[in-house]
Design goal:
Chain A contains two helices and one strand. Chain A is mostly helical and about 70 residues long. The chains are: A mainly alpha (about 70), B alpha/beta (about 500). At the A-B interface, helix 1, helix 2 and strand 1 of A face helix 3, strand 7, helix 10 and helix 13 of B.
Chain lengths: ~70, ~500
């Protein structure tokens, strides 16, 4: 899997986890919350920059007629 | 490099490999064929200089290859042993020559299968003319047979593609088949239904087997025909998310498409992709036959990454579409399927951003509130304490003040008492003095002597002081006391004062 795709995937997953953490907190831990917010902001920034328009790469590959095995 | 020659060499190699029942590369590797097409050797010496050709290979294939190179575009020429023009050919060499020449006579023939003999590596069968019962012996290599996806049985009508070939050990001529297709929509439909049932029984179409199309895919493999609008349609809908698209052109129609598609899939398997898209524009049931090929269907089912099939079809979905992990009807939908998660990611991030920040804000607010509340409570209590203290202090101050005032009062009153006492006494004294003096004055004023001196006198009759005319009778002796003695007189008259 491509590196930045993996990162995006992980970033979004982590964001979900953070959201869930906030949802599940009964006692408010502001210090921990601030840490999570900081982390989330960094993730959001990175993810947004990945989602900006990036030109696609197109490559036409030739099929292998027969296996390339030298004698 | 001479491409025509290369293609001829490849066709020959395929033939030779089939004859021997070996893989094509075991005859000559691609590189060797390319070297031959490049160098175009005209004799043994020239050919032996080509890398990859040694004595053994030359002995086996040398003449045939030289014939192809030299006879490129020329009329067939009988081989002859060097120098000896009239020397007859051996049977073997003549058959080699015939096979080589007949190898150029590729044909498509139609008929009905009249006998089948399935062996390990080859299937021998005969094809009968439907009109006049003419028969031709045929053979097909097991590999090509399996690839055809058709089960041979007596009576089915087929179209065969191949070349004539004489089997040297018995001189028997056979039509060597490379492609088979069923004739007639009914037969196709029947084969389709049979295969569908079989694959279904194996569970190949089960939902549980389907793999999810990965989220945020980036490396995409595409198999389609470069001709036609399919690819353009796909590319114009995929959006710019930095996709790395690897595309391999393939035939998608006719029976040769199967072999082509299989080769392409084999190549694609080695590529670093996350998802494969196999596409073809819409077509009739008949034209979509390659996508009902069993071997191809199994390749798709076992492809290492998830496969999206975008094969336009009418009623009967091609089996490739059914076995694919995700089936869509058009290339543009295939494209939007792949870009969907990317599009959604933007919304997803914005939503998460809002949720997290809002939630944290709520945290802070709730903490702010509870701090305020606590502060108020503390303030309330402290106010209470301070007020009590103030009250007590005030009470104390008042008490002290009162006490002090009392003291001062007492002191004042004491002082006053003292003063009064003194003044009273003084006054008393003064008054007494005054009284005394008054008394003295009175006494002095009332002293008769003083009066006598002033001229007054005291009249007495018979020692009684005369104050009025009553009691006084004429002739009475009246004694007058004056300052310095006594005068004895006689009353001659008396009269009342006129009022």
């Amino acid at each position: 899997m491509a590196e930045d795709t993996k990162n995006l995937n992980q970033n979004l997953k982590r964001l979900s986890e953070i959201t869930e953490w906030f949802d599940n907190q009964e006692e408010v831990d502001v210090e921990e919350g601030l840490k999570k917010v900081k982390e989330a902001v960094a993730l959001i920034k990175a993810s947004k920059s990945r989602l900006k328009e990036v030109e696609n790469e197109f490559e036409e590959i030739k099929k292998e007629i027969e296996p390339e095995i030298e004698e | 490099m001479d491409n025509d020659l290369l293609q001829k060499l490849k066709a020959w190699r395929r033939n030779a490999a089939n004859l021997e029942g070996v893989e094509a590369f075991q005859v000559f590797a691609n590189k060797v064929l390319e070297n031959i097409a490049e160098a175009k050797p005209s004799n043994k010496d020239e050919m032996m200089t080509i890398k990859g050709i040694r004595d053994r290979k030359f002995a086996k294939y040398g003449e045939e290859v030289l014939a192809i190179v030299n006879g490129n575009g020329e009329a067939p020429k009988l081989p002859s042993d060097t120098g000896q023009v009239n020397k007859p050919l051996s049977v073997s060499r003549y058959l080699d020559f015939l096979n080589r020449e007949m190898g150029k006579l590729q044909a498509r023939i139609q008929g009905e299968i009249s006998s089948v003999d399935i062996r390990d590596r080859v299937i021998y069968f005969s094809l009968k003319d439907s009109d006049d019962e003419s028969v031709i012996n045929c053979l097909i290599w097991k590999r090509d047979y399996n690839l055809s996806g058709i089960e041979f049985e007596v009576g089915i009508e087929v179209i065969l593609e191949g070349v004539p070939d004489i089997y040297k050990p018995n001189g028997r001529l056979s039509f060597k088949v490379s492609l088979v297709e069923l004739v007639g929509e009914g037969a196709l439909k029947k084969a389709y239904e049979q295969l569908k049932k079989k694959l279904d029984a194996e569970g190949l179409f089960l939902k549980e087997r389907k793999r999810a199309i990965p989220a945020y895919p980036q490396k995409i493999g595409i198999i389609t025909s470069i001709q036609g609008a399919v690819l353009a349609d796909f590319l114009s809908n995929i959006g710019n998310y930095g996709f790395k698209i690897k595309m391999i052109d393939s035939r998608v129609e006719g029976q040769t498409a199967v072999a082509d598609l299989l080769l392409v899939i084999k190549t694609m398997k080695k590529k670093d992709i996350e998802v494969l898209v196999i596409m073809r524009g819409g077509g009739s049931f008949e034209s979509l036959q390659p996508f009902n090929n069993e071997v191809l269907v199994r390749e798709i089912a076992n492809f290492p990454v998830p496969v999206i099939a975008a094969i336009g079809h009418d009623k009967d979905a091609p089996l490739v579409s059914m076995v694919a992990d995700f089936e869509v009807s058009t290339p543009s939908i295939a494209a939007t399927t792949l870009s969907q998660s990317w599009k959604e990611a933007t919304l997803f991030i914005e939503r998460r951003e809002r949720q997290i920040i809002d939630r944290y804000k709520q945290y802070l607010e709730s903490i702010d509130n509870s701090i305020n509340k606590s502060t108020e409570i503390v303030k309330e209590y402290s106010d209470l304490v301070i007020n009590k203290y103030k009250n007590i202090k005030n009470c104390l101050v008042v008490s002290m003040q009162n006490f002090r005032n009392s003291l001062i009062n007492i002191k004042n009153s004491l002082n006053l008492s003292k003063q009064n006492l003194f003044v009273d006494f003084k006054n008393l004294l003064m008054k007494t003095n005054q009284n005394l003096r008054n008394s003295e004055n009175i006494i002095s004023a009332n002293n008769p002597e003083r009066h006598l001196k002033l001229g007054y006198s005291i009249a007495r009759i018979n020692n009684k002081i005369v104050k009025s005319i009553e009691g006084v009778s004429i002739g009475d002796n009246m004694d007058l006391l004056v300052y310095n003695g006594e005068i004895i007189s006689e009353v001659k008259n008396k009269k009342l004062k006129n009022k």
